[in-house]
Specification:
The complex is a heterodimer of chains A (about 250) and B (about 100). Chain A is an alpha+beta fold. In chain A, about 20% of the residues lie in helices and about 15% in strands. Chain A has four helices and nine strands. In chain A, helix 1 (about 25-45) packs across helix 3 (about 70-80). With about 100 residues, chain B is an all-alpha fold. The longest helix of chain B has 24 residues, at about 35-55. The N and C termini of chain B lie far apart (about 70 Å). The chains are: A alpha+beta (about 250), B mainly alpha (about 100). The interface of A and B includes residues 140 and 162 of A. Strand 4 of chain A pairs antiparallel with strand 1 (about 60-65) of chain B.
Chain lengths: ~250, ~100
Amino acid sequence: VPQTCDWRKATNIISSIKNQGSCRCCWAIAAADNIQALWRIKYHQFVDVSVQELLDCDRCGNGCKGGFVWDAYITVLNNSGLASEKDYPFQGHQKPHKCLAKKYKKVAWIQDFTMLSSNEQAIARYLAIHGPITVTINMKLLQHYQKGVIKATPSSCDPRLVDHSVLLVGFGKEKGGMQTGTVLPHSSKPRRSIPFWILKNSWGAQWGEKGYFRLYRGNNTCGITKYPVTALVSPPAKKPPISCPP
Amino acid sequence: DSLLTKDAGPRPLELKEVFKLFQIQFNRSYSNPAEYTRRLGIFAHNLAQAQWLQREDLGSAEFGETPFSDLTEEEFGQLYGHQRALERIPNMAKKVESENWGES
């Protein structure tokens, strides 16, 4: 497992930060971003895939009322792929629309989807070799998060109550030293270096670290290891074409 | 310069001034004075909560004002979380049999 990995540094792999607005579709955005990134890594085709298709064609028909990433992958399999965002654009309406998947050419598809082990080393290895994956976390601490690495305990962020899906795009280690930024007198605790995950959220770029946030890596912070799920976008390749920039 | 007084350094911004800046930054307006007062109270509570989180966090995270600082924790969870059925969702490996066989 490399020391650091940041798929944002690879050209044209990670798309811009989306904003789900009042539509509870983090699960669809995370799955679409996962498929899009894997497609770009495997085929070097810079597709923008439709989130709205996942909402309108979801088997539960919940649209903006919430859902699960695995339902999104099942929708992609059932519809033989995803239309482009351009053809089938995100509306963010509360009630689901009729499924229009058959109307549009598919620009990306998947062979399968899989859940990874809950071992954070194994997740890091898979991420560095194959690309970004989706994870589902307890989002409780994110409401007031501004920047830095969140290191929580099960009592401050229950790892069993996961309720928000995001895209895991990398990992690294923050140098030790005093806490940066506006230091409150009692908060300047000396720190050892802090291993962290880098996650892409869907709440717009005004939130967090330009739409991203970081969680401590190594103690299942906020339940990050509970549902590590990813699409499989091509038959197992012998040698991945590119690996994650350090 | 209205914040500077001769005999002291800059005094911290009044809560209402901070809230005003929040409203401008995140384009917030409230339908009536009662709603404004209620949101101001929620905002003050959330800033205090962010300071508590800052103390409690074991990493390097910083907490404070965000686009969601005028929402209660419940409102935030309803707006942005998907349903909390996840802790009961069957393990992916298990085959889920439906009671009435043949149901799609």
